[in-house]
Amino acid sequence: MSTSNKAENTENAGSKTRQLLGMKGAAPGETSIWKIRLQLMKPITWIPLIWGVVCGAASSGGYTWSIEDVLTAAACMLLSGPLMAGYTQTINDYYDREIDAINEPYRPIPSGAISVPQVKAQILILLFSGLGLAYFLDFQTGHEFPTITAIALLGGFLAYIYSAPPLKLKQNGWIGNYALGSSYIAIPWWAGHALFGELNWKIVVLTLIYSMAGLGIAIVNDFKSVEGDEALGLKSLPVMFGVTKAAWICVIMIDVFQAGIAGYLIAIDQKLYATILLLLVIPQITFQDMYFLRDPLKNDVKYQASAQPFLVLGMLVTGLALGHSVI
Predict the structure, then answer these.
(1) Any bridge partners for residue 172, and if so which?
(2) Rounded to whole angstroms, how far apart are CA atoms 232 and 278?
(3) Helices (H) and strands (E) in the chain, counts
(4) What is the pLDDT of residue 325?
(5) Diameter of the chain by CA atoms?
(6) What's the pLDDT at 233?
(7) pLDDT computed for residue 267 by the predictor
């Protein structure tokens, strides 16, 4: 096989993988209905929600490495990732099928790979499966009030009003991105914390503040769809402020609110964890300068791949600090 053929095969394999994970830069052509359904659920987006459960379990101070706790945490990860995040991504694709026809015509719905009735069925199955699992976790944990179910209902409702008219929160860059950021950070964090400890208002407020950093991460996703957003009148921050200003807003939100969380950790005498968190911000700033601020349209995926691991590690550091302080 020639070098060019090998390169072409490698590129095709990479494109199929990106397509299956729901990433930017995929190519059409998938025929398996199950792979198409998985593509709709965008598995790449499950990771931060699964990680949010881990952070919540850490902040509870009550997680142990017993088989029961491991299985309970795994069930909550299934709830937050494949089921509820899968529901969120599927319903978002359903209501974004017109804009995807402009920005990402290879997506399953605009490409015609899956029918609208099939998509609706997938939305309902994922939602009710998630709510059923949430109720089981409440029952298994012995909650008098169904906390996990309430969190799942809130997440499902937020996902709906984010994507669907008449509210369609994503039409507003500030509100929509914060809703997305809190869905990635606060909501799965609450679920993980509630499973192994008592969810309280300090945790709720602190994670909502932390979600302002998630707002910055959510803005990164808007740069890939500037053309379609402009065409359909969606007020994403890159459309409202221009690409350069929006990029600066993005990185400032990410860095400032992480630093603010570090300040809180110092205030509750968790100075070592605060120092680690601040050290993790440094490589993020480096990658922001190397990639994102120089060309956010070209380097958005490269920036996310290089910088976001430090953000999510910082979340775990914060969770461990809160678990040790038992707030």
Answers:
(1) 235
(2) 40
(3) 16, 0
(4) 84
(5) 66
(6) 75
(7) 96
